[in-house]
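Provenance

Sequences were taken from public entries as deposited. Structures were produced by running a predictor on each sequence independently, with no templates supplied. The record for AAA family ATPase from Qipengyuania profundimaris is shown for reference.
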Amino acid sequence: MLLGHQDAWCEWREAGKGSRMHHAWLLAGRRGVGKASFAAAAARELLDASTELEHHPDILLLTHEPKDDKEERKRADGKPFELARSIRIAQVRRMQQRLTTRPTAGNRRVIIIDPADDLERNAANALLKSLEEPPEGTFFLLVAHSPARLLPTIRSRCRVLRFPVVPHGAMASLLAELAPGADQATRDAAVSAAAGSPGAALSFVDLDLGKTATLMRNILETGDPDFALRGRLAGAIGARPDRERLQAVLDLARSALADRLEAQTGSTLALIDAHSELVRLTGEQPTYNFDAGLLAMEIGTLLAKAAPASERANV
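Predicted structure for AAA family ATPase:
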């Protein structure tokens, strides 16, 4: 059982004891807290199955598919491929076609949608029809990192299971166990930046962002008057970082500013302004093609402006 899942399992199993278990469940919580793992385990438990998701005929998973036919061919050849940004209506239509047939191995079937908040608008509207009139024995598990992005009519038809974030102490212990080879600076940065998400913390460790975190803290301390730290920050981020690394870097910078706000070190207004600007950049990152070097300099400049040294220089 993953950290923080005890209450969710208790609620799920208690519901299963009833004569009529609710047909649609919304698994809500931060990305990386283990909602998808819970959904897979809950589906197997509901169907009394021991096989993995992809091998069970009555567990259907809707998630991001290859972006186009070219990327699909790459997947078929076992090569790295790019995913679509959303779950498409064609996927929902295929699932609905399956629902016109009986389950293969018993009288139950489970549909997992991960993440449901990435459904296209048309796909969400199509899904709503299945939630309104589900076939007997069909259960839906909707994994959602941002439930507010779902249609209110979808949310209203789901029973919500909430997955809390993991406290810092438990996160630190988990990383010490799962990533013993990482240095302490990297683990500390991962715990701080992940904001209670074990999956995000492990991703930070894998991306080896300890040096990046140290440089960000140094910029926040000194203001980087000669731009030297910002140049080193760009080098640490890399010339061609992928989207996952850029996302982690932005999360790390926001975390550094949030820590300063909590400690009330520096100009509160400057910290809030810098944090707001980083939130904007984070929202744009998935769809914009940022130049890595320019983005690193912009992040560094936002951190430098929020530093106490910068505030003194402007007095």
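Residues 6-163 form a domain with the Rossmann fold fold (CATH 3.40.50.300).
Residues 29 and 163 are 5 Å apart (CA to CA).
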